[in-house]
Prior knowledge:
33% of the residues lie in helices and 23% in strands. It is an alpha/beta fold. It folds into 2 domains: 4-112, 2-Layer Sandwich (Enolase-like, domain 1), CATH 3.30.390; 117-338, TIM Barrel (Alpha-Beta Barrel). Helix 2 (78-88) runs antiparallel to helix 3 (93-111). The longest helix has 19 residues, at 93-111. The chain starts with a strand and ends with a strand.
Amino acid sequence: MSLSLSWSIKRVNTKFEFKIARSAFSHYERVILELRDGEHLAYGEAAPNIRYEGGCEEIVAMLDAKKDQVLELPIDDAESRQKTIENMFPDSFSLQAALDTLFWDLYAKRLDKPLWQIFGAKKDMVISSYTIGISDLSAIPAKIEEAAPFPILKIKLGTDYDHDIIRAIRAETDKVLRVDVNEGWKSVDEAKRGTEWLIEENVEFLEQPMPADQLDDIAKLREFSPIPIVADENSVRPEDLKGLVGAYDGINIKLMKCGGLTNARKMVELSQKYGFDIMMGCMLETSVGISAMAQLGSFARWLDLDGNVLIADDPYLGVGNVGGKMILNDKPGLGVQPR
């Protein structure tokens, strides 16, 4: 059957302004790809991150220029396909992820099986966290109220008022916290001080406390810290993992950084080889992207797959999220459909 490819830019709005140490947004644009073979409709999502690449207009321009080559990609050979995708679109990790997801979705739909089953994963997963972005202290009670069904909170830090944020959160809740600094602490001393006062705050792990290019400093912090240290900005592609041994206890795998499910599976295997605990995370994505990552969710010790519940107008339905419990369905492929 001949294939046809189309795409559109979707704007999604966040429930609250989503702010981290280096940026703040109240809406995002996402490129949704659709691949048809006459019988099946497959989906993929590109959610570009400004730290790593350009925006949606650049992605659309790339697709316009190489649509015919995309339609020639193999459906049944993921390894070959991934290499070709990376060579075609070296400047956009999120487009790589969208295309790889798209073809995996079609592949599974042709087999009439859910992807998680094809990957040898399970439906049952650990509880996902709910992210509280940086904000004015006055907004924290409303955010904690919004997060009421979720037993684990992921807190964004990396400001000059980190202590006040944690105090304000602890005035509202005693839930388990995960802290993500997004490279916001710039020196070993600053990171040690930050870690010291988090030790008593029931923090499960500390994510990317310092800039990715300060790997030696992060290794020093890991020696000092009783709280596990998890890589994010250091853990982008499969080839990054070997160099993180000794600096981190765990790594965060995100489709929009690693280039898709094919590379995410490689990162799972490498994490097991190098002894890293695995977190699976996301950007602010629709249910297309979140459902894709959830297909591998049972391989993770920690999940942070809340991107679709942080947006107010998700245009798709897929994996469920009830108080952090991820609910995969038995539909073929990603199990995604328009809302």
